[in-house]
Amino acid sequence: MALKYSCNPYFYQVLRAVVEPRPDSAATPADTVAQRHAHLATWRRQVRSFGLDTLLGVDIAHEQPGFLPTPAYYDKARRTRNWTFKSIYSLSIGQGEINLTGLQTANVLAIIANRGWYITPHFVRAIGNTGQPLPRFTERHRTLVDSASFAALVPGMVAAMQRGGTAELASLADVGIVVAGKTGTVQNDEGDDHATFAGFAPANQPRIVVAVYIENAGFGGLSAAPCAALIMEKYLKGKIAPRRKKWEYWLRCGDLASQGH
């Protein structure tokens, strides 16, 4: 339900349970500064295994690594080791000091689609007479998260496309395609918010991952999600259903931000 309705407080509490767990009984030791540092470092190590805060090694120049904060980073930024979860909780919804690229976003969704592994993204399909990509683009990189945890995410990501979900406009159920994904609305102090969506289809036998980021377009579910749906539908079906033809025009020519008002 948290994924379907994009419930921020749920994710706040999930990260709090990781970084600053509350004692369940008198037998459980109280949280300490050292434990909080260790817990954040462990979280960062797990997340970094998704290809974040590092160069994926794609076959084009000028790739950016993004950023995941370390305990030492917060010690310096807060000028104290005594920072608490209350000062870093925005990490739980992908904001705060987290920085990642659109390609990394797509790669994270590919990891979920594959239930825990990814192949380095690449643009060149084959080299020479072999008809195969370079060997480094065939190696599977596994995350530090168990595959069962990824499987548990998919029903919520599918539910987000259903009636009442934040990505209802990304549903392709009418053409027999089950989409799994997640919307995002990026706060912007200098204008309209930025719209994001990332997903894959078909949900249980994925063939395509799409990540969309549209500047100043408002809610992710009202612009980025339908844009991703069009890409998926065109790729999987070879055409766009008549009922979504108006979306093509709207996404090319419409005032996307106005859809959120």
Structural write-up:
The chain is α+β, with helices and mostly antiparallel strands. It has 2 domains: 7-18 and 34-145, no CATH class; 160-261, DD-peptidase/beta-lactamase superfamily (Beta-lactamase, 3-Layer(aba) Sandwich). 34% of the residues lie in helices and 11% in strands. The chain contains 8 helices and 5 strands. The chain has helices spanning 2-5, 8-19, 33-48, 71-78, 102-113, 147-159, 224-237, 245-253; strands spanning 117-119, 140-142, 180-186, 194-201, 208-214. The strands form 2 sheets. The protein has a 3-stranded antiparallel beta sheet with strand order 3-4-5, with helices on both faces. A two-stranded antiparallel sheet has the order 1-2. The chain starts with a helix and ends in an 8-residue tail after the last helix. The model has no long low-confidence stretch (mean pLDDT 90).
- The helical percent reads 25-40%
- pLDDT averaged residue by residue: 90
Strand residue percentage: 5-15%
Structural class: alpha+beta
Subunit arrangement of the protein: single chain
Number of helices: 8
Residue runs with pLDDT of under 50 for 5 or more positions: none
Estimate nothing, just give the exact number of structural domains.
2
Rg from alpha-carbon coordinates = 20 Å
Straight-line N-to-C gap: 25 Å
